[in-house]
Amino acid sequence: MSSARGDCYPPGMTTENDAPADEHGGPWLTSGELDSWLSVVRLMTRLPWAIDAQLQRDADLSMVEYMALAMLSEAAGRTLRMSTLAENTSTSLSRLSHMVKRLESRGYVRREPDPADGRFTNAILLPAGMAKLESAAPAHVAFVRRLVVDNLSGERLRRLGQDAERILGRIDSPAR
Amino acid sequence: MSSARGDCYPPGMTTENDAPADEHGGPWLTSGELDSWLSVVRLMTRLPWAIDAQLQRDADLSMVEYMALAMLSEAAGRTLRMSTLAENTSTSLSRLSHMVKRLESRGYVRREPDPADGRFTNAILLPAGMAKLESAAPAHVAFVRRLVVDNLSGERLRRLGQDAERILGRIDSPAR
DNA sequence: TTCTCAAGGTTGAAGATTCAACATATGACC
DNA sequence: GGTCATATGTTGAATCTTCAACCTTGAGAA
């Protein structure tokens, strides 16, 4: 099934790659491990690209922008701190700051310093932003269904989410 | 386990989200589907970021650059057409062209028009590029093992790869 | 031959992201 | 109060990606 051949990952070592198929911890990847990893790499590359393309085409939004608007739409008072929003959308504060500035200039969002603690900045979803989100949502959700949710059995989707969480756990863990 | 709450995805509709848990094709996502999808989104966002950070820190390479060098290292004559390389690394030709120009300026790669058909351009891995790749590979493979390969059972890794392929199939399929 | 066309690739400008430096606000400590 | 340290955000420059326009090569038709 893999169209991109697997013998390209660790470099120059393919002949020594025939170790027992499921032994953990070896120096290189076995050919089965490599196939799976390369599939994951392609998924990480192309799925965001596909989602972005759909949203861009149908709503002139990037996926991160959609996520940010969606997070705000569900928050109390349609308001979140910049730092919370950055955490929840997995983006850097700097990127978010630039991004919100653009959303602000489009009239979807506004910012104000938190009245209770001036260190924080609150991002607030405006009616135009809510309208934008509501108009973008149906096509976006349908697309996600077609590519992912309806494309896997309930059980496999559930496991996919679990595997993702397990990998994310390692990413967040304090190294080693 | 999900730290970012799920009630932020389709916007403004959470109260109607209590449909039967595994019914396919509804208008919105059920809360379980949403959790899984958001986990996948976070994975797509953070895993490439983590891999890039490791490679950048240890080898001053991005993941796409690493992939390109690795593909070339395994190709016959350490040579591939630009278009093939773009396909195999899931990047646009334009992005690849800029990227290879940078790799060229670092002495890792060179380009030449295909002698047999001048429409194609061949990218060729130079010894310095091979050396770079070999020095980067061990730490990179170890990192991929720690995050993904050794973090899931053989069976789950295999299924993860299959799910990825299944989703990729939909992405490549001619719409609808 | 000559014309036209499609495919492969490059380029420069515009747009987005990253990086490091810089504010600013608050709390802790003296 | 005054000073220092820390956490939150912002900004501008550098870098990277995307987008559209363009160039070139070779194939095929007239």
UniProtKB/TrEMBL annotation, chains A, B:
GO terms for biological process: response to stress. Residues 37-169 form the HTH marR-type domain. It holds the Pfam family MarR_2. Residues 1-26 are annotated as: Disordered. It comes from the Bacteria. The keyword Zinc does not apply. Keywords: DNA-binding. InterPro entries: HTH_MarR-typ, MarR/SlyA-like, WH-like_DNA-bd_sf, WH_DNA-bd_sf. GO terms for molecular function: DNA binding; DNA-binding transcription factor activity. This is DNA-binding transcriptional regulator, MarR family. It comes from Streptacidiphilus jiangxiensis.
